[in-house]
Amino acid sequence: MDQCLFLFDIDGTLIDAGGAGVGAIRLAVRDLYGDEIAVPELDVRGTTDAALARKLLPAMGAEVTAGSIAQLYEAYLIRLREEFQKVNRGAGILPGVRELLDALKAKGVVMGLLTGNLEAGAWIKLERFGLDQYFSFGAFGDEHPERDKLGPEALAEAERVHQRGFNPTATVVVGDTPRDISCGRVIGSPTVAVATGAYSLEELSKHNPTLALKSLQESGAILDLLSKLSGKKFSDSEGRN
User: Fold this and answer.
1) What is the pTM of this model?
2) How many domains does the chain have?
């Protein structure tokens, strides 16, 4: 029997950052390149920070090098910490998230991250809302402009941290964008698409995820999927204990 592995996106899936991430990016660019330079419109939905850096730097008239990328990351992380110190009523844990994570943890599910965030930025966000305790590893957007490369990396990291292999067919990728669905499909894993981000349930359903849910409050459907993958039967009420 395979132990199940769940890989979670962060923004729009676990938390609403209340615009702190995009705000930090814009402030970081201005810190480095001045107020007079117009920051281009940013579509951050399902992208990676590595891809954003490669888009932003040329727009600022900067060469894309390891040094310029590192400098941008450093400035961003400083501003991200500052943004999360502000009172932001729009930021918070999304509906059903903590309950689902508790249920999965109680059932022995291994949980990791599959996110386009920088590794340091991901932990800043999760620590801000007390969700970091649920995750022991992750695949992050520091190096990969292409999000689809993160799935194989997440499986390899899970194996390294837990010293055992994980079957992709018993691995579930959970996210709020079509790119999350694509990530799961690349590694042959079931996918849960949740409409708590920028995409509607109808838009996500068109990409044929294993499950398309309004929010993670629909834990019963996820626990039913877990039952099928693990060979065990967990009721919704059991999962909440």
Assistant:
1) 0.90
2) 2
